[in-house]
Amino acid sequence: MTTQRSEPAGDADERTMLEGWLEYHRQTLAWKCEGLTDAQLRTASAPPSELSLMGLVRHMAEVERGWFRAVLMGEDAGPIYFSDEDPDGEFHLTEDDTWQEAHATWQDEIGVARRNAAGHGLDEPSRGVRRSTGESYSLRWIYTHMIEEYARHNGHADLLRERVDGVTGE
């Protein structure tokens, strides 16, 4: 499988631009993981960090779920990989954790995110609210935050990939 990435058109309307950049960054993370074994994808960056490419994908599944289910739609969407006892559970990998499962879960959450966002206007308030203030978010804010979240973690993915097999790229 070869991940295809494309930037949104420079003259796209706002929503198309936001959705395009989010998709670009989703594709970038997939690309950074491409062609590696499960063991390589579980390889942590450097002690004491447990950060790995598979952990990042599992983390982004949680982030997609949190923002597009719990916040945007107000769903009671519980965690996938973490718990109160293990708040960083998505990064705590074992030999039993596979790319196939992590990737499928991430893609499922992206699919739900797309469907939920499609029925929501950019300025429409979220049904879920900010825990600290009780304020809602606009879909525009959520898209912008998600682009930032992926961009930051794609920087981590660059370094992780280089550590695993020396591959570098944009």
Q: How is this structure best described in words?
A:
With 170 residues, the protein is mainly alpha-helical. It has one domain. The chain contains five helices and two strands. A hairpin with a 6-residue loop joins strand 1 and strand 2. Helix 3 runs parallel beside helix 4 and helix 3 runs antiparallel to helix 5.
Multimer state: single chain
What structural class is derived from the secondary structure elements?
mainly alpha
Largest sheet: 2 strands, antiparallel
Strand content: under 5%
User: Which ranges are low-confidence, i.e. pLDDT below 50, for 5 or more consecutive residues?
Assistant: none
Portion of residues within helices? 40-55%
Number of domains: 1
Order of helices and strands: HHHHEEH
The rounded distance between the terminal residues' Cα atoms is: 19 Å
Mean pLDDT: 95
What gross morphology would you assign?
Answer: globular
Strand order of the largest sheet: 1-2
Radius of gyration: 16 Å
Query: What is the tally of beta strands?
Result: 2
